[in-house]
Structures are given as C-alpha cells and as structure tokens.
Amino acid sequence: MKDIITLAIESSCDETAASVLRNGREILSNVISTQIELHKKFGGVVPEVASRKHLENIDAVVQEALDEANMQFSDIDHIAATYGPGMVGALLVGLSHAKALAYTLDIPLVGVNHIEGHVSANYIEHKDLKPPFITLIVSGGHTHLVEVKDYGEYEILGKTRDDASGEAFDKIARAMGLGYPGGPIIDKLAKEGNKHAIEFPRAYIDEGYDFSFSGLKSAVLNYLNAKKMKNEEIVVEDVAASFQEAVVEVLSTKALKAAKEKGYSTIALAGGVASNSALREKITEMSKSEGIEIKYPSLILCTDNAAMIGCAGYYNFINGRIHDMSLNAVPNLKI
Length: 335
Ligand code: KG4
Ligand code: ZN
Hints:
Layout: E1 5-10, E2 15-22, E3 26-34, H1 36-40, H2 47-69, E4 78-84, H3 88-105, E5 109-113, H4 114-125, E6 133-138, E7 143-150, E8 153-159, H5 165-175, H6 182-190, H7 214-229, H8 236-262, E9 266-270, H9 277-288, E10 293-295, H10 299-302, H11 307-318
Parallel strand pairs: 1-4, 4-5, 6-9, 9-10
Antiparallel strand pairs: 1-2, 2-3, 6-7, 7-8
Helix pairs in contact: 2-3, 4-11, 5-6, 5-7, 6-8, 8-9
C-alpha cells in the first residue's frame, strides 16, 4: 500500500511547530520553535505577543520540517492542524496557514483537537499501542481522565473542577518567585527536598474521577504567607517536593482506580505534566502490584509539538474525518 505522508502544524500556545510523518506513526521531521524565552519576562504567555511571533515563524518552521524530511509540498497527502483548544489568535495563525496550503495544493485538511494530539503522542512513542486504554491528560490547560475506546473515540470519566495540574505547578512556582514555566523548575527542585515535610491536602482522592487543585494551591500559598509573616525560613525544596507529591498522589490514585474499575490494563500519560519525573515514578510504582502497564511519551513528545497533531490527524484522515475551508479556530474545543 502507498505510504501516507502528513504535514502537521501546531500553534495553539507558545510553540510554533511543524512535522512530517509517514503513515501517522513515523516521524520524518519534528520542528519546534519555542517562545518560552520571550514570555518568561511576563511570567506567562501573553496571547498577542504569541500570535505575532507565530506569524513571524510559521513559514520558516514549515519549510524546515519539509527540508528535514527531505520532502516537497507535492509529496504531502494531507495537512493536519490544531484548531482548538488554545488561544484564538495563536490558533488562527497555524490553522490559516494550513488552510492556505491545503487549498493551493488541493489536498485534504484535517483539523485536530490539541488534547487528542497529546494522547496520540503515545502512538508515536509506543508502536504497539492500540485502543482501548485509559489516558490521563495533564497539561497547562487540562486535567482529564479519559477512556480511549478507539482511534478518535473518547469517553471522559473525570476532569478538573478548577485549575489544571500544570496551571497549579505554574502558579505555585510564580508565588515562590521561581520563574516560568513552573513545572520543570518544581520537578528539579523537588529532587532536593523532602516530600513528607509538609502535609498538603489531596482533594477528592477517594471520591469519583474529578480533580480539584485550587484548594491545594491555596494551602501552599497560605503556608508561604504564614512563614513570611512569622519571619521563618522557607525551604523551597521541601515546599516543591511536598506540593508535587500531593499532585502526583491524586493523579496516580485516580488513574489507577479508573483502570481497575473499568477493566483496562494500560494507562497512557499525556501532556506537559506527563514529563514530571515524580508522576512517572509514582504511578509506575503503584501500578506494579495491579498488573497495569504505564506508558508515556518521551519528553520531546510530551511538550507541545506538531508530530502528535499529525498522528491524530492521520487517524482522522484514514477514517474519513476531514474538514473543509469553513473550519474555524475553536478556543474552548472539548475532547
Ligand atoms: O502540554 P503543554 O506543553 O501545554 C499545554 O497544552 O498546556 O503543558 C505545559 C504545562 C505547563 O503548565 C508546565 O509547567 C507543565 O506542563 N510541565 C510540567 C513539567 N514539564 C512541563 N509540570 C510538571 N513537571 C514537569 N516536569
Ligand atoms: Zn499542550
């Protein structure tokens, strides 16, 4: 059978990315131009700044992805692009570029849900992975526990009622003056700290599949304020480790509970927070006695990238789920 070549574009947040894939799961190129340095000085992503930077970068990033893959536009069978969720201006840059390419090359356009992309990163990493399985999607904007019933077919079991897990990492890091993005910084600091030093709350740990991280965030902020008021030393490593332990214990417990109760033997982690070393360790450790296998993408595929968008787009394409030129960006797109 003839190979299917996908050109994918991602621009939902602060990474301008393009990738070329063969048959959905083989990466021929994966170019990521990150804007992290640009947004660092603001302590978070500034939407207007992000859109303008995407616009500056998109053409070169797509060209680089083609060059690295040794491909021409004429080799591409279809385009895949993120159309939500994300920041509307940022999404529009990648999607409009994708639409223009699909139109001029006269090839199909496939709009991809960014969250579905994160899940699909696991298909690239683990060539034998097939639905059904449970996925724990943990990123800056999302915390979802989902049954993957088939390619492109999902059932949400639970989600956060307030902050996303990555957002909690970012907010706590900001409160401690550690910089942006907070997740990787806290992950690193926590390695030097005592995770049992401070007992922070684990909301809903034995209750259902929903999550809540705003109470934990307030508890950490209250702890920091109380220490400052009393002029007591704050051991940032201990705060980082204790906070991180509270997050990963809730995430791991609920994901395992879902797999056991719903009868699945595989859990795939997805999204930026899936890079977290404590989460990977804890859930793997807890799953051993349960006979449940934990899978996660390599670090480069956990962060925002276009290869994962191309993989999700490929499965939509071969299943006939394509879009026309009226496709618009949907900032609050649901999975
Ligand atoms: O998936 P992603 O790159 O973008 C979104 O779709 O949101 O996730 C970014 C989030 C940020 O909140 C960042 O702090 C978090 O993932 N993150 C981490 C780690 N690396 C990135 N959180 C905890 N530990 C990490 N090692
Ligand atoms: Zn993401």
